[in-house]
């Protein structure tokens, strides 16, 4: 009797497997999405950030920009496992990120929105201490829109909080492109 129950159970299992595995249409094959491009996958987990403003106007403050970039990297560290700090002296980092602001211009007013576009051109390079290039972008153009009433570019840059906002927008965009490639 016990052998008969085992045999019946075994036949039931085989029947279920045969019907489920052989007679149903195949499941659709989905390609998994590629993982995001992340600097951390190259063994970089600690970045020292440096910034230089070589534009003629020098509106963005290099030290403040470097700090904002480090903060933006650290805000992503829960996903990327990469941390950053600011400084010009070596300090145990796996790589150094140097961003150079090439130009800072105020473009014409957008008639439909009333906002002005600040165009920041920059280059960035992430290298290991031995000089190996990990990531770079050259001559990136970042269009950052703000609603400003000033028509004179020099006056527009003097608006309270504007430089801080442009630096924050630039740092967020740079870090996003560095980690995720967009």
Defining key terms:
alpha/beta, five-stranded mixed β-sheet, elongated, 182 residues
Classify the helix fraction into a percent range.
Answer: 25-40%
Main sheet attributes: strand count, strand direction, barrel closure: 5 strands, mixed
Summed over residues and divided by their number, the pLDDT gives a mean of 82
Q: Give the uncertain stretches in residue-range form.
A: none
- Which CATH class applies here? Alpha Beta
Number of domains: 1
**Per CATH, what is the topology?**
Rossmann fold
The ordered H/E elements are HEHHEEEEHH
- Can you count the beta strands? 5
Q: Which strand order spans the largest sheet, edge to edge or round the barrel?
A: 2-1-3-4-5
Give the helix tally.
5
Through-space gap between termini? 68 Å
- Dominant shape: elongated
Radius of gyration: 27 Å
CATH architecture: 3-Layer(aba) Sandwich
The CATH homologous superfamily is named ABC-type transport auxiliary lipoprotein component
- Based on secondary structure, the structural category is alpha/beta
């Amino acid at each position: 009797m016990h052998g008969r129950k085992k045999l019946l159970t075994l036949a039931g299992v085989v029947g279920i497997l045969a019907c489920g595995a052989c007679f149903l249409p195949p499941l659709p094959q989905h390609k998994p999405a590629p993982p995001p491009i992340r600097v951390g996958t190259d063994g970089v987990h600690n970045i020292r950030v440096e910034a230089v403003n070589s534009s003629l106007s020098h509106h963005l403050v290099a030290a403040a920009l470097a700090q904002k970039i480090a903060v933006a990297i650290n805000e992503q560290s829960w996903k990327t496992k990469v941390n950053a700090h600011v400084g010009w002296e070596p300090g145990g980092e796996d790589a150094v990120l140097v961003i150079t602001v090439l130009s800072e211009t105020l473009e014409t007013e957008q008639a439909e929105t009333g906002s002005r576009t600040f165009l920041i051109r920059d280059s960035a390079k992430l290298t290991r201490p031995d000089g190996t290039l990990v990531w770079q972008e050259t001559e990136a153009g970042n269009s950052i829109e703000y609603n400003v009433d000033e028509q004179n570019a020099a006056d527009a840059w003097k608006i309270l909080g504007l430089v801080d906002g442009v630096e924050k927008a630039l740092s967020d965009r740079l870090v996003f492109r560095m980690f995720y490639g967009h």
